[in-house]
């Protein structure tokens, strides 16, 4: 059994002030058990409860290059930006409502004051609340190492429960969210056991409207598979079609067939299958209305 | 009914003791003693296994002080000594000697200069296990003939008993003739109900600090609802005279009943300190605490007979409780469940059969209601089932059969019986119905919406204390020393604990009222220990105000007598000619001859005179046993909204009627009721400590991440929580007061279940009623309808 009153392991602790310092450290200790510490709201919990062994801990909160948000044709969010900082931004609330709803659905404010967006992504939990909205908005990640940098779509980043494609000498420095399509409607929805909880299911949808037609759409669900899941077949039902209630209903049904939930402490697979259908249906309606579409 | 004018009683309390808000309040875990060691506990990885050998030599080599099964006294005890010794089952030692009986049972403890060092040392301990058994996690499994015995024998009092089929204890009671009663009935209904294990989730995890003193004694700060019982037990276990043990009374960070018994970690801490010959501090982690205690579950088969006019003829109640790896208080629990069952309605003939069964799970103990919310769920659900069958309004059926004024009431099982002298049941049902707009309630079959509204009612009660005309199986008395200080302020020394509900404030008010000394001038909050106080049994059984308050009132009246007698010598008058009153401008109690109020002296002046003339201190010490335990009643009218697409339940509004006699602190009283509603919401809709069926571990791993209790966001808005008090006066209570704490929870669960039934026409027999269960039942209902229509 663990004891969450204290950290039982010993490790080296670094607080670099520049990105290159951090990357040097990552490079130097790439063969050791080295971890990035952002808000620590996942990492410290795991160190205490799962006994994750860490030899070197690199705190990235003092690196000024990654502490801000750039508002230029979309959003560029640094890795040390706190969730509570994002939820206070007008641009986030108005342009990316699903992200705003995802963030504010998380934990309590004390946690959001510590936690980062990048931490939520890199933690790669199937229940991460910001991941479905970010996939809906087509977010990309800037990944840097001492040797260079690469930008890859978030969708390709997470490879399994708690697993990403990140190499041992790399870190994520920035989340890049493109400017949304002018008639994009998006929404987020989450069900937990209580209001502030890890999701039984979370999901985000985005619909790009062209008149009565859904030009393109994304339906992304969490907590229903080993990683965030895109309901491609469900999207197919809507894409290029005139949006009507019955179409939304069948898209929702389809989405519920695409997911592969399990029984766990938070809920059952059976319930999740039912719930997914209802949630997708309701959230598609909201998104369509937000896109300026009419209800039929 | 007498209506007195009070100076302090019944006024909303301006809280002066704000330490809890500013962080200044000290709890056991805040106590630090120079040179102390920190302790951690190794808990069993197995649920049921033989301990062959515990080897902590490697841990000692790195500087830790360790205790294992071989180091603790042989004394077999029960950590709860509220019942008389002849009725107390004993099955445990400080650490288990032969085998572990649940996963997470404390097995070895280490102390070192830091928690981290102690933890590192703990990792070096080697345990050799003998035979291991598959954990018995359910009643059925534990009772089956081929189940391995969890205990071979236990003690009841001094008698050694063989344990058969893992049955920890039984209790059977019969009053009248149920078979005859069922024959008289027009309708007989039998149903099976289940309530689940939940975790107390008190804020403060259990903690202890123990200092070995130079005289061979010990001083202990520990999370506890009753310091004197902790002292008696430690004296017994460690063979120390009680005069060498001092237990400090320290603020509790909540308990909900989890510290009625001496906590399992307390003697572990003491044993370590005695071995180390140094102060030791032991603070439980949340997971330690999760593996230490839980609420008793209950399976109930209830059969009730009723005549067409709604009069009951008989009730047969069979209950089973799986208690986990130790019997902390299952025997009195079974008695109390019988009492709660027998005292809610006039069943006429009753038969009760209760069985407590050992399992390989966390030991269960009292939690807010001690079986009352559990059995109330069965009874109050059943009343609604019967009402529907009889085509009667559920309120009328309740009014027709409730046990009220003049009736006999079992306050603490069958051995503590008394006559009810105050009762607001009728007022609460009728007034509550008006406030809740009961008349607008429509039957479930008229509802077709996606979000269906429903309203349910349930009523409950709890005893105030455990005293009867004759002392029964339960020890119940309290006491105090009260002294008027040299400046006219007053010290109240009582061992009674405040569990966070404001009991000390209530006691201070009672003393203020008797002595007419302003509330602010009563000192009660700190500086108390077993050495400076007379016995108080425990703050449990909703007895704080009624029994503890009764005792301080009794002692305060003695002090008043001493004061008036002394004042009479100063005024050269008779004590009965003197008036004691409160002068709010002066902020002082004053005394004057009846005819000449302007001739007053403040009691500050009088006390000072007693002091400077070396007359002595105006003080008194005594104990008091209350010879009643009046029921405090509660009634819940709950509105629900059930989402038929997701199974989610919302509670938009609730009306709660309480009957506590005179209310000492109205705002704190309301706080108890609203707080209990939140806990009831968790009990009704959300909480359960699930076990892994293979290894007997908690599925939440002892972490709050996966054990949810409702937050404020699950509660109705504060303006939609309507709380009202009945107009009653309890003649045996201090200033007419009874209790509230546990009563407040008793009927929340069934009120919610009844409301859900009214919304969707589905009766739930098992708590918690989760969205998962609701949605599944709705689908099954739909399916059945379709089948019936031949689709
Ligand atoms: C009480 C509580 C409630 C919570 N509720 C929710 C909830 O409702 N929804 C939800 O989704 N989550 C929830 N969480 C989880 C957590 O708060 C979030 O996932 C948060 O966003 C993590 O961010 P962080 O900055 O704290 O990450 P950290 O814990 O610092 O890091 C998480 C992981 O990412 C790695 N990492 C961090 N930054 C980088 C980087 N720049 N490059 C590479 N790797 C990196 C770390 O090494 C670590 O493995 C909760 C946590 C707590 C304690």
Query: What is the ordering of alpha helices and beta strands of chain A?
Result: EHEHEEEHHHHHHEEEEEEEEEHHH
Query: For the record, what is the CATH homologous superfamily label of the domain at 417-464 and 628-786 in chain B?
Result: Aldehyde oxidase/xanthine dehydrogenase, molybdopterin binding domain
Strand content of chain B: 15-25%
Please report the number of helical segments of chain A: 11
Poorly predicted regions of chain B? none
Q: Which sheet architecture does the biggest sheet of chain A show?
A: 5 strands, antiparallel
Radius of gyration of chain A: 19 Å
Q: If helices are DSSP runs of H or I spanning 4 or more residues, what is the number of helices of chain B?
A: 19
CATH topology of the domain at 417-464 and 628-786 in chain B: Aldehyde Oxidoreductase, domain 4
Rg of chain B, alpha carbons: 27 Å
Provide the CATH top-level class of the largest domain in chain A: Alpha Beta
Distance between the termini of chain A: 56 Å
Mean of all residue-level pLDDT scores of chain A: 96
Q: Give the integer mean of the pLDDT values of chain B.
A: 96
CATH topology of the largest domain in chain A: Uridine Diphospho-n-acetylenolpyruvylglucosamine Reductase, domain 3
User: What count of structural domains of chain A?
Assistant: 3
CATH architecture of the largest domain in chain A: 2-Layer Sandwich
Structural class of chain B: alpha+beta
Shape estimate of chain B: globular
The tally of strands of chain B reads 33
